[in-house]
Amino acid sequence: MRSMQVVRIIPLGAHPRDVSFQSLIMGLEQVLPLQCRVEAIPMDIDAALDSSRKQYHSTELLANLVSLPERGEQRVLGITPYDLFIPVLTFVFGQAQLNNRAALFSTFRLHNEFYGMPHAAETLQSRCLKEALHELGHTFGLRHCLELPCVMNSSTYVEDIDLKPADFCLPCREHLQDVC
Amino acid sequence: MSAFDPSEITIMVVDDELSVRQSLEAWFQDDGYSMLTAENAAEALKRMQEQHIDIILLDIKMPGMDGLALQDRIREFNQDVIIIIITAFATVDTAVRALKAGAFDYTTKPVDPDELSILVRNAVDRIRLQRENTALRESIDHLQFVDDIVGDSPQMQKVFELVKTVAPTDSTVLVLGESGTGKELIARAIHMNSTRKYFPIIPVNCGAIPETLMESELFGHEKGAFTGAQYRRKGKLEMARGGTLFLDEIGTLGLKSQVDLLRVLEDREFHRVGGERMVKADFRLICATNLNLEDEVKAGNFREDLFYRINVFTISLPPLRERQTDIPQLARHFLEKHCRTMNRTVNDIAPEAMDILKAYDWPGNVRELVNAIERAVVINKSGTITPDDLPMQMASRPASSSEDVTLADVERRHIERMLANFDWNISRTAEQLHIDRVTLYNKIEKYGLKRP
Questions:
Q1: Cβ of B129 under 8 Å from any chain A Cβ?
Q2: Is 50 exceeded by the pLDDT of residue B98?
Q3: Is the pLDDT of residue B144 over 70?
């Protein structure tokens, strides 16, 4: 890998409940040559709220991140506790700009409690790391990977996220080595 | 089948809402599909004229022509495209109408991400089956052509042996022979007897494509790669994926294209013109030429490194004049074939007509023979082909060349040809010539003939 990529992590709305950013950063920096820092910038995200759906429009939140002035970082990763959607779908876990700067994901459906199960701190943390790697992967030009043991494999259920590792398969890793 | 490449599937989203078009486009782009959007029926139809589309995600309620009417219009000219209806105003009535009119599936907005993925995956599975089916049908068509390789002569028996030996090996093959000797048939025979037979054989006539177009012809191009590249197009290398690429008249390939081809053969990957993503090359290469490539290398017209790359296993096809014993069999084979395709009844070839066919020197080789028989079948009225049914020049043109001036010239050339016909089997050649073996030996010595 060529150089250390700086990632600015920005909480959107409120700090996601029971999620440790410190642990997330450690996880990200272990897998990718990243230097991550958290910046709590006050952002007004109300315009992205669809009150009838009680969900936030993911693409509009992504646009908010894109409009942030750069501060020496190559990537910006938003994390929100609110449920996300794009117009045609019931929900999305996250969204990213392909081969570009911004990505975000929601912890709303990563909590076990959402599925009526008891809280599991480690599981939540692991799902956050995988979602962060997955969405950042898109910003580095990776598309969904057909390999099951790859974090870029597409997840439409939370179980899919649990099944895949917090790492990239060899071809995806080779791609990252070329672009990072 | 080779690994599934989503970029080979083109999905078009037809919806009047910009946000729906954008979100579906982005969603499926992440999966690697090639995406297009249209905001109304007219635009959708225009896009379909411009390029091939595999799947349409279609909204029902649109201003102007609605989704169901658009589906009906599309079905008038395209039965293959898969249409999935996605609508915000679902009713049982419209769902039934859509499915009856040939929609693949029907769902309501907002769609569960998993449901949408499954819908598209099912559609993709069907496309893959359709493509496999087409490839198999093409293979069967090609198999019929392979029947046209006919011949009991020792030269052809040797060719068949070589085809049988090399076919299952995946090795690059160079087929040499004069124009019309059936080089493409041999390439197809190799393909049909190889492990790649269920995938296509893609022929490229290097001599027929201008050098300026060769790059995009071979490698394909991305939309906007150059002026006139209005949409993405697959090249022959990609079309041959899993199968065989047959480069006919390779000797005429321009020097730039030679470099490009050499690079693919070495790296086993390439990218489309104007594209960045590397595409894996997975094909067997068979080349053919009627030129002497070694001479072309010496003259600087053909790269030496490419020559060594393609000159791995060579099959030389004899010209028809050197295997005259095959002519009766070939003539009857093509007679039967043309009668079948033209629905005519011509049962036989009269001995005098056959003598003319055997005596002719066939500068256009088997292709010329095929055409002569086809013509004869067309004009014949009696049911038996006579000399009158054959082209005039055959009867008037002797089997000798213009170099043959003296009787000795003719004798030398005839003995040489007969020896070649029987693979230098002295007894059989002498028998055919109605002379004894000693006389034949004497003549071989007299004319200084040597076994090649």
A1: no
A2: yes
A3: no
CB B39 within 8 A of CB B18: yes
Q: A with B: how many residue pairs have Cβ under 8 Å apart?
A: 60
Joined together, the tokens standing for residue A30 give 């272990």
Kindly determine whether residue B23 and residue A88, on different chains, have CB atoms separated by under 8 Å.
yes
According to DSSP, the β-strands at B313-316 and B173-176 are parallel
Q: Residue B245 has what DSSP assignment?
A: E
Chain A residue numbers with beta carbons less than 8 Å from the beta carbon of B26 are: 59, 86, 95, 98
Handedness of CA A60, A62, A66, A72 (dihedral sign): positive
Rounded CA-CA distance B146/B140 in Å is: 10
pLDDT above 70 covers what percent of chain B? 92
Distance from C-alpha of A150 to C-alpha of A113, rounded to nearest angstrom: 26
Whole-angstrom distance, CA of residue B448 vs CA of residue B452: 12
Handedness of CA B49, B55, B61, B67 (dihedral sign): positive
Q: Is A135 a catalytic residue?
A: yes
The listed range with the strongest mean pLDDT (A68-77, B142-151, B399-408) is A68-77
B243/B239 Cα distance (integer angstroms): 8
pTM of the entire predicted model: 0.57
Give the contacts of B296 (CB within 8 A, at least 6 positions apart).
B251, B302
Q: What is the pLDDT of residue A113?
A: 96
Q: What are φ and ψ of residue B393, in 5° steps?
A: -65, -20
User: Average model confidence (pLDDT) for chain B?
Assistant: 87
**At which residue do the structure tokens 């991550």 appear?**
A36
Q: Is B103 exposed, middle or buried (0-12, 13-18, 19+ CB in 10 A)?
A: buried
CA distance B411 to B266: 50
Angle, CA of B284, B288 and B289, to the nearest 5°:
155
CA distances from B22 to A30, A114, B124, B207, B448 (A): 34, 29, 21, 45, 81
| Contact criterion met (CB below 8 Å) for B290 and B178 | yes
Neighbour tally for B57: CB within 10 Å: 28
A143/B111 Cβ within 8 A: no
**Which tokens belong to B55?**
């799947």
| Span B34-49, pLDDT tens digits | 999 999 999 999 999 8
Q: What's the pLDDT tens digit per position in A132-168?
A: 999 999 999 999 998 889 999 999 999 999 999 999 9
Instruction: Answer for the pair A64, A43: CB distance below 8 angstroms, yes or no.
Output: yes
Q: Give the residue ranges of DSSP H helices in A18-120.
A: 21-31, 58-66
